[in-house]
Amino acid sequence: MFYGSAPLLIIPSLLGIKRQGIVWDESKEALLRPCEQNGAQKGDREAAVDAEIAQVNKLPAHSSYAIHRMKVLNKLRHLLSIKRTTSQDEELELLFASLSI
Question: Rounded to an integer, what distance in angstroms lies between the CA atom of residue 2 and that of residue 61?
Answer without folding.
Answer: 22
